[in-house]
Amino acid sequence: MSVSLDVSPELLQRAEAGQVDDAEFVACVRDSLPYAWKVFSSVVTDLNAGTAPFADNETPPPSEVERGQLLRALASDSIRGGLERHFGVKLAFQNCHRVAAFRPSAVDSDEYRAFISPRNQLLNQSPELRDC
Fold first, then answer.
1. How open is the CA angle 110-50-115, to the nearest 5 degrees?
2. Domains in the chain, number
3. In terms of pTM, does the model score above 0.85?
């Protein structure tokens, strides 16, 4: 069985006793999902280096283990929200591997609406991705 995060006994104890702050939570995500963290960090770095409304990663993960990290991170509202707060972006996701980071000001943009549209989801499919 696969779990989303590797939670230390100390962090679990703090969670059981009350709230855990974002920094502790994000550190747990970073340490538990290193490939996903690398992808998020990369797209945010690319976004911050330019002026485009978003930056994305279209490189498929090297294995199902890494693909699983992306899926676990982006399928969890708390993980995704923690990452968005940490990086100061809105994350969008397609095709089991295409991750984009949008500037918060671009969330109501044509580019964002196009990226998350059913049309673009369909257009970004390929036979090799059908099993993901």
1. 25
2. 1
3. yes
The DSSP line for 84-128 is: HHHHTSEEEEETTTEEEEE-GGGTTSHHHHHHTSHHHHHHT--GG
Structure tokens of 31? Answer: 């340490």
Kindly state whether residue 50 falls inside one of the protein's structural domains: yes
pLDDT tens for the chain, 132 residues long, are: 456 899 999 999 999 999 899 999 999 999 999 999 999 999 999 999 999 999 999 888 999 999 999 999 999 999 999 999 999 999 999 877 789 999 999 999 999 999 888 887 787 666 655 555
Locate 69 and state its tokens: 């990290």
Specify the pairing of strand 90-94 against strand 54-57.
unpaired
Specify if 10 maps to a domain. no
How many C-beta atoms surround the C-beta of residue 107 within 10 A? Answer: 16
The terminus-to-terminus CA distance of the chain in angstroms comes to 18
